[in-house]
Amino acid sequence: MKNDINFLRFLAVHSSVLPFNGSMADAQMREWPANVVLDHVRDFVAESRRDHRSEISLYVHIPFCQDPCSFCHCARIKLLSQQQLERYLNLLVQEADTWAEPFQGMPFQSLSFGGGTPSILSESQIYNIFSQIHKRFRFLPKAQINFEATPATLTASKVRVLKQAGVTRLTLGIQSMDPIVLQGTGRVQTWAQIDSCVRAIRKNKIPILNIDLMAGLPGQTAVSFLRDLKRILKWQPDILHINPFGSVESVQAYSKHRDISYREMALTRISMIKEARNILLKEGYFTDNGNSYSRVKFAESAQEVSITQKSGSILGLGSSARSRLSGRAIWQAMYGAGAIEKINYRGVVSDGQSRMAEYLIYNLLRADGVSKEVFFSLFGIQLEDVFKCELSILMASKIIVWKRGRFIYNGDWSGLSLFEYFVHTKRFYGERLLMCLRKTFEGAYHPDKDYSYHSEGLPAKIMDDSFTALLSQM
Ligand code: SF4
């Protein structure tokens, strides 16, 4: 056996929190001088022009939060002063300057502001940053313009400015209104704030309102989660994301303070997700992936669709924002202390196989599954030439089935755990990438601990049988 079985089990236990593409790239990234990034960009733009391809989105990261929530894994820091924010925005414009010329004339399909908390910007800062971006980059006429906000920082006047700036999709990150969760995580928000945000969004006719909720947060109960969901549904968001919570450190810290196991937490989370799904389907929402539910067509984030379903490219601006050019390079801008000092880059030349594995994983988790023809059109190679062994194991285990000319996930999406378990314990990433994952998780992984029975709430016997069957084929 080439792989360390206990480590694979560790990955399986924590599969719902594995930022698999992120951790993989993080561990391999090295410092890159700006001219190396620039060379990759120029080659990418030249190839895109030659091949008449232009599947690219622009992402702007605002890393600041008023009071960062303890459960959050995003790249975020506490905002200490307005001066810090201004200096950050100046650096952001400088970074935009670097890429404006090489991308000149190449239209972006979407623009997204994420964080952190983009709505922490003042009205004039929002206005300025949008105009600086539009001065430097060109967007398709129907480009989706996304902006993320929290109820505590979004005001009616900011919504007016966002509408004028062309925002077409606004995400309100509510996560939870359970008082114990809010108290325990340092998050401050009220129903009155949410109500006034939603009214302003509707009044200004921003086409898509997306609301983010989390399931399974420390202290959150199924009762409070469903109460929040039902109250939120009265506002009829166009799309809702129900994100499962899982965090190695937070869960460990949480378990120390409360008499509840990781397994119990996982079971509660799975039951919340199942119940939410029943409610949302009854309310007329539809889903093709088990964690986002839409009421109207095209409510999904165009950027996410481009990356996950079309293997599209993205240019990221701002501290920690990740850029990736199709089949070429992944890099990240790192701004120094407090996100206000000189910009450095870290990057890695992407390994074609990882990109294909990522595509396969994302899309097997969608209702449409994976078509061999689409795979070939994106990567120029037959799916089974790359993943023959993986697909046959997933098929033999009935984790996926072949239906309507596509490979499709055969589970109920409530926890996704068994599927993810197979994905992460398989060799989709090979030995080299597993080594990187080991490095990334070395603080959390204890080689002497037996991870075989901490199975994301699934019956241990199912997990163990599946694992044994899987290992016998490796
Ligand atoms: S406000 Fe949003 S981005 Fe900031 S810490 Fe909380 S969840 Fe994370």
Strand content: 15-25%
Placed side by side, the strands forming the largest sheet appear as 10-9-8-7-6-5-2-11
Largest sheet: 8 strands, mixed
Helix content: 40-55%
- CATH topological fold name of one domain: Transcription Regulator spoIIAA
Outline the low-pLDDT stretches. Answer: 15-23, 247-252, 415-419, 453-474
Q: What is the CA-CA span between the terminal residues?
A: 7 Å
Q: What general form does the structure show?
A: globular
Task: Using the coordinates above, name the CATH class of one domain.
Answer: Alpha Beta
Total helical elements: 18
CATH architecture annotation name of one domain: 2-Layer Sandwich
Instruction: Find the count of extended strands (DSSP E, 2+ residues).
Output: 17
Written overview of the protein:
The chain has 474 residues and is of the alpha/beta class. It has a domain at 25-307: Transcription Regulator spoIIAA (2-Layer Sandwich), CATH 3.30.750.200. The chain contains 18 helices and 17 strands. The chain has helices at residues 5-13, 20-28, 34-51, 82-100, 123-136, 156-164, 179-185, 191-203, 222-233, 248-257, 262-282, 302-310, 352-364, 372-379, 383-396, 417-425, 430-440, 460-472; strands at residues 30-32, 56-62, 64-65, 77-78, 108-115, 139-149, 169-175, 208-215, 239-244, 292-294, 313-317, 322-324, 329-336, 341-349, 370-371, 400-403, 406-409. The chain has an eight-stranded mixed β-sheet with strand order 10-9-8-7-6-5-2-11, with helices on both faces. A four-stranded antiparallel β-sheet has the order 1-14-13-12. A three-stranded antiparallel β-sheet has the order 15-17-16. A hairpin with a 4-residue loop joins strand 13 (329-336) and strand 14. Helix 1 packs antiparallel against helix 16 and helix 9 (222-233) packs parallel to helix 11.
